Amino acid sequence: AQRVTQPEKLLSVFKGAPVELKCNYSYSGSPELFWYVQYSRQRLQLLLRHISRESIKGFTADLNKGETSFHLKKPFAQEEDSAMYYCALGRLGSGGSNYKLTFGKGTLLTVNP
Amino acid sequence: SAVISQKPSRDICQRGTSLTIQCQVDSQVTMMFWYRQQPGQSLTLIATANQGSEATYESGFVIDKFPISRPNLTFSTLTVSNMSPEDSSIYLCSVEEGGRREAFFGQGTRLTVV
User: Fold this and answer.
1) How many Cα atoms are found within 13 Å in the side-chain-facing hemisphere of B43?
2) pLDDT tens-digit map of B56-71
3) Could you say which DSSP state residue B99 is in?
4) What is the Cα A55 distance to its own chain's centre?
5) Residues contacting residue B88 through CB under 8 Å, at least 6 positions apart
6) Which segments of chain B does DSSP mark as H helices, in order?
7) Is B31 near chain A, with CB under 8 Å?
8) Looking at the complex, does the CB of residue A35 fall below 8 Å from at least one CB of chain B?
9) Three-state secondary-structure class, residue A36
10) Which of B96, B101, B109 to mutate to test binding with chain A, by most A CBs within 10 Å of its CB?
11) How is the beta sheet containing B75-80 ordered, strand by strand?
12) DSSP string of B53-78, one letter each residue
């Protein structure tokens, strides 16, 4: 069975400090990993995905298959980064149909001035 | 990107009653998904709704409790039936557009059962 673990419910850093939100996964197949973000009073939205290997709003995430991790990092946190962050694993449903997402419980990041 | 409107945004309901949540998308999509987010928990997939076929439910969710309609490619409803306080959650509608494997979400329906 697939599982996504985000060990930190809350993470608080100061502006300008580095931030790392941890995500570990369990999946027997070839994983597709995502980070979704929900800012205050906004809907959940995609931040980045591992296959794109891109930096979004200064955030990066590297898939480490050996450690089954997909940690989200930013070298210098900004106050506007304060939000709820969800790590998600994508896989096909049974029979190869219907692409599905399994979410972690989320980490609430607070960036203090 | 798909824009999803979900109604109602919140409701307080009496136990034993039912609530139907509507999800309207501004473009035609093949698959629509319904999630539940209980307090302090992650998003849990309830079911996948494809137009023209029965919804596919995840383990732990049954059609009698969460009947779903999908009359066309832009609309779906989720009914929470015979509600109890344990059904108090945020319910989210989601779509995946054009095979890009990016999920778009509605703003959610915050349900409180008293």
Assistant:
1) 28
2) 999 999 999 999 999 9
3) T
4) 13
5) B38, B39, B111, B112, B113
6) none
7) yes
8) no
9) strand
10) B101
11) B4-7, B19-25, B75-80, B68-72
12) SPPEEPTT--TTTS-EEEEETTEEEE
Please report the number of interchain residue pairs, chain A to chain B, with beta-carbon separation below 8 angstroms.
44
Phi, psi at B60, each rounded to 5° = 95, -5
For residue B29 the two structure tokens come to 């999509």
- CB contact set of B60 (below 8 Å; sequence gap of 6+): none
Q: Which residues of chain A are within 8 Å of residue B107 when distances are taken between CB atoms?
A: 43
**Tell me: the pLDDT tens digits for B12-41?**
999 999 999 999 999 998 889 999 999 888
Contacts of A30 (CB under 8 A, 6+ apart): none
SS3 B7: strand
| CB within 8 Å: A105 and B45 | no
Tell me whether residue A20 is exposed, middle or buried, using C-beta atoms within 10 angstroms of its C-beta: 0 to 12, 13 to 18, 19 or more.
Answer: middle
Out of B42, B44, B107, the one facing A43 most closely (by C-beta) is B107
Cβ distance of A43 and B106 shorter than 8 Å? yes
The answer to whether the Cβ–Cβ distance between B42 and A49 falls below 8 Å is no
